[in-house]
Amino acid sequence: MIGLDFVDRVAELSALAEEAERASCGDPRIVQLSGPAGIGKSALAGAFLAGRPELTRVHVAGAEDETGMHLGVADALLRLLAARAGHGEDHTGAAIDNPLARGGDLIEYLALAQRRGTVAVIVDQLDWVDPASVAALAFAFRRLNGERILIILIGREEMPPDTCRRPASRRGEADRLGVAAAHGLHRGRALPARAYRW
After folding, report:
1. Which of 1, 18, 193, 194, CA to CA, is 20 to 30 A from 184?
2. In the prediction, which pLDDT does 95 show?
3. Three-state DSSP class for residue 37
4. Which residues of 52-76 are buried (b: 16+ CB within 10 A; e: fewer)?
5. What b/e readout covers 102-137, taking b as 16+ CB neighbours within 10 angstroms?
6. Whole-model pTM over 0.85
7. Are 139 and 133 in contact, with CB atoms under 8 Å apart?
8. Among 112, 90, 182, 100, residue whose Cα is nearest residue 141
9. Peptide bond preceding 53 in cis form (omega within 30 of 0)
């Protein structure tokens, strides 16, 4: 059921539902929600997820005062994924300073987490995610293949282009009234990300 606050967002909610269905079939998806602060990107994602209790949610967010914390968001995501996989919240893998190595850990735990069902990974406040975490997330997300993973990136700006080159994703535009004009962009082997900008 769609709340009254989201009547103008039916197209976006439908697109999110379509991406979740594809992810549930082993076609990992990336969705970007981007636009000005306060426009309702996080609320839209929350409304969508509230109607999809079958999705296991793993939520991390950047913070303005933590942009200098090397691998802060990537480590937080790894801890949550490890807990979902039954390895305990305290597990963060080996002490690593290398974003690509941390990305490798994320791949392992994303694969473990999705064994119990489709996982929705929400990365909110993307603009405040530390650079090392962006590199680790990009490394991991590009290498997903066959996992039941839906990734929702939320921020004022889009993730760097290399982040969404793999797995399947789409880019599109949505105007402030919520009319989505999503269309595919393909680059090499990578399928494009579905993105909505307000």
Report:
1. 1
2. 66
3. coil
4. beebebbbbbbeeebbebebbbbbb
5. bbbbbbebbbbbbeeebbbbbbbbbbbbbebbbbbb
6. no
7. no
8. 100
9. no
Residue pair 195/34 in contact (Cβ under 8 Å)? The answer is: yes
Strand 119-124 and strand 168-169: the pairing is unpaired
Strands 171-174 and 180-183: antiparallel
What's the chain's Rg over C-alpha atoms?
A: 16
CA atoms within 13 A on the CB side of 113: 26
Two structure tokens written together for 117: 């069902």
- Cβ–Cβ < 8 Å for 101, 41: no
At 86 the pLDDT is: 78
* Helices and strands counted in the chain (H then E): 5, 8
What's the pLDDT at 11?
Answer: 85
Torsions phi, psi for 2 (to 5 deg):
-100, 125
Show the tokens assigned to 5.
């606050």
How would residue 120 be classed by pLDDT, with cut points 50, 70 and 90? very high
Structure tokens at 55: 């999705």
CATH number of 31's domain: 3.40.50.300
H/E run at residue 121: strand 119-124
Helix ranges restricted to H, the chain: 10-24, 41-50, 72-84, 99-113, 131-142
Instruction: Look up the domain containing 146 and give its range.
Output: 4-197
